[in-house]
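pls design
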């Protein structure tokens, strides 16, 4: 029976990451073993797993490949170790949990679009693999090791869930490949945990925590209470916002933490209400943020206290409805309706997305990051040396139809403007995905942590 992605990772260590979804360009030859027979088969139509995960149906580019046991995997390994001329990109994220609509299948599609566009200017064969880390660091690490050791993956991208991202970044560094954190949040990736093999795209906890806290402090919100996801990402996001609040003369009155994927936030919200804080700051993301805001609305907390979501993405708005979400502010690196170029690419994305969603700034980041990586590989000549590829990525200005021109700093931080967005009222919205208006632009030089302040060893060496 075929199952999507890496669900066998829940079983014994010997078969972790045994299932991998593969998105194949037309010019790529089939893989070995069972993957061979499936990759050469017909396109899947109305597959139940595809429907559940929001993958494209009629026009899907997905082929499902399964390596059913370690014996099969080892039998395939020699072929994958050969110089077969195929560059492999692994998209790892949450395909089935609270972040699945925010990255998930949409990120896989974005990587595929980048590969297709790059193929117009290169004869290089590209294969895109997808894996579900289940928001578990051990599962993410197991997928990464299998991809790098057995399946010949050259670059891993996306990685929402900072605990997973940090673990995978260490493994990629050991193997001298490349990791691009387009969905990862923690600013540690360009701070004390920076690596010559890591690039951090889209956003980070410093940009979101400091940027939104600065905005709210200017609006008069002086006292804060945090409701925080209890893992690396949430802790770092709370810390960054707290640093900005304190530096601006505000006070933090308390915080409460919850596990990822929590359903009931009532006790945490009541504690926040009882604190009397002017601002209730949500240091979480995805479905956790949506559920927090829904329940805060049910308690009418917004009447006397300002509810602020430090991470708030496009897909959150339809999940809440404009009536509930209107007026909420967010900082994003990109919005689909910014210009004709972003609208054209977004319509192309939407047409092929299984749930017909418009892309958010992380989906756009997967496209942008993958495209820049592929350009660097072409420049270097081979994906074999990850450090050489990242050096080339830093040396070459970024330039693509979505993020435009930008740079990658010595610490691996991709630098670009950020945008303060506000959710439209139902009366102002003209279509289902017409949900944000751009209120202000945060210039690239102010959007991210100053290079000298991150504590990245690579910066110290450069100086």
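designed seq:
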């Amino acid at each position: 029976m075929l199952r999507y992605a890496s669900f066998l990772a829940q079983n014994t260590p010997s078969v972790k990451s045994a299932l991998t979804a593969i998105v194949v360009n037309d010019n790529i030859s089939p893989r070995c073993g069972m993957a061979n027979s499936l990759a050469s088969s017909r396109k899947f139509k109305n597959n139940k797993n595809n429907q559940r995960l929001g993958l494209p149906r009629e026009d899907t580019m997905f082929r499902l490949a399964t390596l059913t046991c370690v014996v099969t995997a080892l039998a395939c390994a020699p072929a994958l170790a050969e110089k077969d001329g195929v560059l492999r990109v692994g998209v790892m994220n949450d395909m089935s949990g609270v972040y699945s609509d925010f990255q998930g299948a949409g990120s896989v599609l974005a990587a595929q679009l980048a590969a297709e566009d790059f193929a117009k200017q290169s004869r290089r064969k590209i294969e895109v693999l997808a894996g579900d880390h289940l928001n578990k660091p051990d599962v993410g690490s197991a997928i990464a090791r299998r991809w790098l050791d057995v399946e010949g993956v050259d670059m891993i991208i996306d990685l929402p869930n900072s605990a997973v991202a940090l673990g995978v970044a260490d493994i990629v560094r050991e193997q001298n490949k490349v990791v691009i954190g387009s969905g990862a949040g923690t600013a540690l990736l360009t701070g004390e945990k920076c690596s010559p093999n890591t690039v951090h795209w889209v956003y980070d906890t410093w940009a979101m925590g400091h940027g939104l806290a600065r905005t709210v402090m200017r609006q008069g919100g002086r006292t804060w209470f945090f409701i925080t996801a209890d893992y690396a990402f949430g802790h770092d996001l709370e810390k960054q916002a707290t640093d900005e609040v304190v530096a601006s003369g505000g006070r933090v009155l308390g915080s409460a933490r919850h596990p990822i994927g929590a359903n009931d936030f009532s006790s945490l919200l009541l504690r926040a209400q009882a604190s009397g804080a002017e601002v209730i700051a949500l240091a979480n993301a995805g479905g956790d943020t949506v559920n927090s805001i829904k329940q805060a609305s049910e308690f009418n907390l917004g009447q006397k206290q300002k509810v602020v979501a430090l991470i708030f993405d496009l897909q959150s708005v339809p999940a809440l409805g404009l009536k509930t979400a209107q007026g909420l502010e967010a900082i994003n690196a990109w919005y689909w309706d910014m210009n004709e170029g972003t609208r054209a690419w977004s319509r192309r994305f939407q047409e092929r997305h299984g749930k017909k969603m418009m892309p958010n700034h992380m989906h756009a980041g997967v496209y942008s990051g993958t495209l820049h990586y592929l350009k660097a590989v072409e420049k270097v000549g081979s994906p074999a040396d990850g450090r050489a590829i990242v050096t080339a990525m830093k040396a070459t200005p970024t330039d693509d139809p979505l993020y435009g021109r930008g740079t990658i700093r010595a610490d691996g931080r991709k630098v670009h403007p950020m945008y303060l967005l506000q959710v439209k009222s139902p009366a102002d919205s003209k279509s289902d995905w017409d949900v944000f208006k751009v209120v202000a632009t945060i210039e690239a030089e102010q959007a991210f942590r100053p290079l000298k302040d991150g504590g990245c060893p690579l910066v110290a060496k450069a100086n």
